[in-house]
Amino acid sequence: MAVLPIRITGDPVLHSPALPVETIDDDIRELVRDLYETMDAAPGVGLAAPQVGVPLRVFTFTWTDEAEQSWRGVAINPELWISPLEPGHPDPDLESEGCLSFPGERFPLRRAERAVLRATDLDGNPFEIEAEGWLARIFQHEFDHLDGTLYTDRLTDKEQRIVAKICRKVGWGEPGVSWMPGVDDLEG
């Protein structure tokens, strides 16, 4: 297993739709092991293959909910259904999220409260998870990566100007910029 470099916003792989996984083989199993190791080292609650430069529809997740139930898994070729968004502005204290591809920053973002994830596991078995709250947010965030969307793309115009300013200040936004979890200290 290996910790992989995480791509920073601006890298083309983060802004392109990922391709479906055709066959779950040893290469995919190794990718998933590396995604888990990289996600844990970062540390993060989710990591999509495009974030490590692999344009495939795969993401890992890990989360312990309020009831102390642990959620950890991999979604291969996922489909996601979400409940309608509640109208209004996001609460900065309760609805802010960050991203390993835009490290060190958090912005408020309204997400659907509920989601249904349907995917295939590493053994090729289909599964379905009905999620609420933060687990639903994690699924939406990681699923967005597979469609070439970063959470910063969903922010208000005002917040996107802040994102652009941060990118210019720290030199992000160019193809090939990455960081190594456990090695690089990236503070936005």
TrEMBL record:
Amino acids binding Fe cation: C99, H141, H145
EC class of the enzyme, as a word: hydrolase
Family membership noted in the UniProt record: Belongs to the polypeptide deformylase family.
Keywords: Hydrolase, Iron, Metal-binding, Protein biosynthesis
Cofactor-binding details, from the entry: Binds 1 Fe(2+) ion.
A Pfam family this chain is assigned to: Pep_deformylase
Function: Removes the formyl group from the N-terminal Met of newly synthesized proteins. Requires at least a dipeptide for an efficient rate of reaction. N-terminal L-methionine is a prerequisite for activity but the enzyme has broad specificity at other positions.
Catalytic activity: N-terminal N-formyl-L-methionyl-[peptide] + H2O = N-terminal L-methionyl-[peptide] + formate
PANTHER family reported in the protein's UniProt record: PEPTIDE DEFORMYLASE, PEPTIDE DEFORMYLASE, MITOCHONDRIAL
HAMAP family cross-referenced by the UniProt entry: Pep_deformylase
InterPro entries the record matches: Peptide_deformylase, Peptide_deformylase_sf
Transmembrane segments: none
Protein name per the record: Peptide deformylase
EC annotation from Swiss-Prot or TrEMBL: 3.5.1.88
Cofactor: Fe(2+)
Residues at the active site: E142
Record carries keyword Metal-binding: yes
Keyword Iron attached: yes
Species this protein is from: Agromyces allii
